[in-house]
Each structure stands twice: as structure tokens, then as C-alpha cells.
Design a protein that fits this description.
single chain; 125 residues; alpha+beta; 50s Ribosomal Protein L17, Chain: A; three-stranded antiparallel sheet; 51% helix; 18% strand; globular
Amino acid sequence: MKQYKLSKKSQVRSRLMRNMLSSLILFEQIQTTQTKAKALKSRAEKFISRVKSMDDDINLKRYIASELYAGSQEKAYDLSKSIKHVETFRVNNRSGDNSQMMIIKLVIEEVKPKKSADPKAQKKE
């Protein structure tokens, strides 16, 4: 796996990724540079796959608390089973330094209410 160093020390880089992942969960879409978006996408995909595979609520909450900041933990817990994957889109270059910008977005599947199997119960509604 390729490690994106982003010209930062490891502690700064880990806090940056944690902050960006928290913002992505909270706002469901963020705009950033191409290199940061690629680094964030790999971390977000790992986070999503691990959260989806967890069955125990206590361990799920502990893992979310270790990966995200406090403002987005509750939303991440609510969306834990409905997040499908992460998409990235290229947008125009930034005007100041002409660096390539990307939008990174969470794809969330809508949960449909389950229909009852009893046909008489459906007619009453």
C-alpha cells in the first residue's frame, strides 16, 4: 500500500487524516487537494469496511471514538451500516497555486422500510 507523506511529520499527518475523516462523516462531502483526497479515500474505505463488519455495539463505539473527533462520532454511529463507499470527483484547479482539487463524497444507501409478509396486514394499511 502506498503511504502518502504529504510533506508532514507522522503525528501531524495522522491528526490531519483524522480531522478530514471526521469532516467527511459530518458533512458527507468535502473538497481538498488531489493528494490529500487519495490519502483520505484509502483511510475512509478501511474505516467503512471495518465499521460494517463489527457486530458488537460497544466495540463499534470504541473504534469510532478512536478514529474520529467528538463532533462526528454520533453521526458515524447512526450511519455505520448504511454507508456504501467513497467516491472522488475532479474539479477545477485552485486559483491561487493551480493545484488539482477533488471532491470526496460518501455514498449512503437509503434504508427502505421492510414490508410485512402477511397480505392481510398490507390491505389494512
